[in-house]
Every structure is written in C-alpha cells, then in structure tokens.
Amino acid sequence: MEPQTVRMEKVINCFKKNPEAVARLICFPWAGGGSIHYARWGNVLNSSIEVFAITLPGRESRAKEPFFQSMQQIVDEIIGVLLPLLKEKPFALFGHSFGAFTSFAVADSLKKLHNIEPVHIFLSGASAPYSETRINTPKRSELSDDDFLKWMISIGGTPPELLANPEVLKLFLPALKADLHVVEHYRCNKPDSAFLTCPVTCFDGRDDIPHDLQAWKDITSGDFTVRMLDGLHFYLKDSGNERIILDYITKHLETIEMDYL
Length: 261
Prior knowledge:
Keywords: Fatty acid biosynthesis, Fatty acid metabolism, Hydrolase, Lipid biosynthesis, Lipid metabolism. The chain is an alpha/beta fold.
C-alpha cells in the first residue's frame, strides 16, 4: 500500500495549499479532462476557500496508470484519499459533465457509507444519471475515431490545434473514451427520497444540447437552483462565464463561514 500522503498528492492537485481555509471546493474533471483547469481556481478564489482538483489515472502526472473501468473504482479511490480531509472542515463539490456524475456518485457513497455530506453541490452540463434523457443518450465511446472526432467538433470546446494534430489526438482520445465508457455503463436508480439536505446548483450552457437538470432536484431536500449561461457544452471555459461561476461559488461558500462561526 502507498503511504496516504503519496496517494493524496497523486489524486489531488492543489495549487495553493491553505490550511486556514474555512471550506474546500473539490472539483471533478470532465471526460478526458485533467485537473489543471480547476486547480487554477485555487489562485483566483479568495483565501477562505481551498481548491482540490481531482486527477484521474491515465492523464497528467498519472499518465502511465491504467484508466479506471467503472464509476465504483473512481469513487473508491477518491473517498479512500479524501475521507480524513472531509471530516476536518466543510466541503463542496463541483463537477462538469462526466464530473457531475462523479460528484453525484461520490456524494451518494459518502452519505450512505459515512453519513457525511457536502455543504453545497455545483453540477454543470449534465442530465441526472437516472433521468430518461441520460439513459437514452447514444453511446459515444463505441464510435470509430473518425466519427468520434466529428462528434467532438460538433459539441465545441476542443481547441482546433488539438483536432488538427494526430499525434496529440492519439494521446487525448483514449482518456476521453475511457471516461465515456465509465459514464455509459454507470447505472443508478432514481432516489426514492432526497438523500441530501444541502443546496444543489446546476449550471448549463444555453446553446448546449438540452439536459434534464430538473431531475437533479430529486437528490436533495435543500434549495435547488438552475443557472443558464451563454455558450455550448464548454461554456465554462469562457472567462466571463468562469467569473460568474466563481463569484457564485464564493458567495455561497462564504455564507457557510457565517454558519460555522
């Protein structure tokens, strides 16, 4: 077994360690994504929030590790690493697309197995995993590379220089397909009753394909909010939208600070 500190450094990318922070924001990557986009947020958000960006196997510093095959493997690793930290102070979860499913699966497991829940969940660019919209989504991970690339171009957000470079694509496509394989085989039932009490906020791009955001309401008895922002699937990469999201997160996590004083 690896020492816990080594496992933490492998799984958590934290640009700005901040032991004095009142709350932590734990961010889960989109399909094929790394941790850098979110780790940057640690330099932008104010000092009361520490950002942990999750790094999954098969990318960045973990490029030589085999991809996970199931959501359960992802959840087990993340909870195995994070559990001691989650007991220290309030935490919130943020996930976009595939990361929204990971956030949900981690929150579900934390509540059922450890009776711990976040103070807020921020979900972006995804239908709830048990919704009809999600269940009927075509399986993209089984497409040929050519058809897969056509689909990627259609949803936007992939830098054109990446799409034009076959060598880079060869490195990038396996991680994306592996994550989509996980999400396409992830099954969960609609909750019989809300298992969380924390607020849930859904963000989405107005010009993305429609997602069943309302179905996420079933997971919580707390406040439920939907915020639509301009753009396609990767609307959150736009600097103006990113500012809106980070301001919103800051405002909501700062109110936590008041509750805990």
